[in-house]
Amino acid sequence: MKLAPLALAAMIATPAAAFDMAKMTEAERAAFRAEVRAYLLDNPEVLAEAIDELQKRQVEAAAQGDAALVKANATEIFDDGFSFVGGNPEGSLTVVEFIDYRCGYCKKAHAEVAELVTSDGDIRYVVKEFPILGEQSVTASRFAIAALQSLGREAYEKINAGFYEDFRGDVTEDTLLAFAGDLGLDGKAILARMDAPEVTKVIEANHLLAQRMQISGTPTFVMGGQMLRGYAPLETMRAIVAGERG
User: Fold this and answer.
1) Which of 27, 132, 199, 244 is the 20 to 30 A CA-CA neighbour of 47?
2) What distance in Å separates the CA atoms of residue 148 and residue 49, rounded to the nearest whole number?
3) Has residue 14 got a pLDDT over 60?
C-alpha cells in the first residue's frame, strides 16, 4: 500500500513531538519507510552530511568532556609539586605532556614540542612520566625521576632529551650508567635513587591521574584548558596555544 502524496506531505510537516509511528498502520509504516529509502537513494549526499554532522557533534562532546576532566583535576595536572617544570616557569600558558620514553610518537613529538616551548617563550612546560609500554619504560622513567630528585632540573632535562635523541638499545643498569656518563652525570647516584619510595610515588600518582583523565596512550597533552590526545604537528599545537590565549 502506497501513501497518497498529501498524506506523506502531512507526515513530513508534522512536528517531531507529534509524529508517532506507533500509531501508524503496518501498511502506512511500510510505505513511509519505502519513501524514506527512496529519498535517500535519490539523494545519497544527505547521508554524507548526516555522518559529518554526527562526527562533528561527537568531537564537540569529547572536547567538552575533556575540558571538564581538566577542570576537575587541575591541581594534579598543573601543580602536583613533583613533576618537572621547564620552559618559562612563569609562562602565561601551561602545556603538560604525558610521556613514555619507549613511545615512537613521543620521540616524534619531542623536537616539535621543544621548538614550540622555545620559540614561544611564554609557555610553562610540565612533564608527566607515564610509562605504559613495559618494564623498560618503567625503568627509564624511574631513572629520569631519580635524576630530577637527586641531581636537579638540569640533569633531568639532559636525560629527558637524551632518551629521545641519543639513547639506543635496551634499558639496563649498564646502558643507563653509560648513558649518564655520556651526559656528564653521576649514574651511580641516580641508580641508587631509582627504587626509592618517592620515585614510585610519582609513577603511581601519574597513573592514577591518567586513569581519572581517561588517558590510555602517549603522548597526551593538556594545553591550557583542553586536551590533545596523541601526536600533532607543530603548527597544530601552535594553533591550539593561540586559541587558548583567545
Assistant:
1) 27
2) 52
3) no
